[in-house]
Amino acid sequence: MNKFWTLLEHIQDKMKMAGAFFLAGMVFVTCVSVIGRIFNHPVFGAEEIVAILATMVIALTLPYAHKEKAHIGVEILIQIFSLKTQCIIKLCTSILGFCLFSIVTWRMIVYAHTIQKSGELSMNLELPMYYIIYILSFCFLIFSIFILQDIFFIKT
Predict the structure, then answer these.
(1) CA atoms within a 13 Å half-sphere pointing along the CA-CB vector of 116
(2) CA distances (Å), 63 to each of 3, 71, 117, 142, in order?
(3) Burial, 63: exposed, middle or buried (Cβ in 10 Å; 0-12, 13-18, 19+)?
(4) What CA–CA distance (Å, rounded) separates 113 from 61?
(5) Considering the entire predicted model, what is its pTM?
(6) Dihedral (CA of 131, 15, 62, 23) sign
(7) 106/152: higher pLDDT
(8) In Å, how far from its chain's centre is CA 120?
(9) What is the per-residue pLDDT across 79-125, written as a single tens digit (0 to 9) for each?
């Protein structure tokens, strides 16, 4: 089981690097488009590209943010409870989060399959969007597994 968590950490690390790459891509496309606008030649579909890249950045860095506890929490309220109550609250929220994101993962896979079968494309650049939705569902799957890891290893 330890090899599984190590593999997951490795995947999460690669996802974080890909997220950083896509973030740099967002900056690059935005700068090129702004400079292009000065010379009346903006990048066609720049808004669409940046939106896709932003979606990828958020999805790819979600497991890392969860591992680092970088998400928003209601710590002030929770801190007044005993340690045992805090663990129970963490267990309940982790189970609910795992259920929610597992359902989101499943439905995104179904949605991507539906989009793939219908042949739907993005508006300006006519890119097949189902690839992005499949990648998002993979990111949510990894995120769900990290939440499951929290459930298994909650310290009381």
Answers:
(1) 11
(2) 18, 10, 29, 7
(3) buried
(4) 24
(5) 0.88
(6) negative
(7) 106
(8) 22
(9) 888 889 989 988 999 999 999 999 999 999 999 999 999 999 988 89
